[in-house]
Design goal:
It is found in: Cytoplasm. The protein is built from five helices and five strands, in the order E-E-E-H-E-H-E-H-H-H. It has 137 residues and is of the alpha/beta class. It has a single domain, classed as 2-Layer Sandwich (Nucleotidyltransferase, domain 5). A five-stranded mixed sheet has the order 3-2-1-4-5, with helices on both faces. Helix 3 crosses helix 5.
């Protein structure tokens, strides 16, 4: 059964999450460097059946574009060129990183595990974005 993949795009690191085959639960998948993202997606789409991609879209509290929005817009354009037949949905990612940090603290993660460079927060943020998308759709 095809899955849905989520992307929490950052200029350095990208968090990825994926649904279970029944599309009920979102789970962290991987953290990749943004320069390697298109190659990772190409390989992943070859190995796994993916029916759609959800990309976190950054806005501020008023729903307006942020500094990060232009980077995500550039990625979206590249994604559409590389994967023109893959459905792409945008999901508000407001506060997903803060929610991911809180989830890690509540799960007992130590400071090193929560360190942004480890990529854990990026993967968990992607899972939060995907779970919100699943709940809304």
């Amino acid at each position: 059964m095809p899955r849905i993949l989520a992307i929490d795009y950052g200029t350095k690191r990208v968090g990825l999450a994926v649904t279970d085959p029944l599309k009920i639960i979102a789970s962290p998948l991987e953290m990749v460097h943004s320069k390697d993202l298109i190659q990772f997606l190409t390989n992943y789409f070859t190995k796994e059946e993916v029916e759609a991609v959800v990309c976190g879209y950054p806005t501020n509290e008023e729903g307006e574009a942020t500094d990060a929005t232009r980077h995500v817009d550039a990625f979206i354009n590249l994604f559409k060129k590389k994967f023109p037949t893959m459905p792409l949905h945008l999901q508000d990612e407001s506060f997903s990183s803060q929610e991911a940090m809180q989830a890690m603290i509540h799960s007992g993660s130590n400071r090193k595990q929560r360190n942004k460079k480890s990529g854990n927060i990026d993967k968990i943020s992607a899972a939060i974005i995907l779970q919100q998308f699943l709940e809304e759709n």
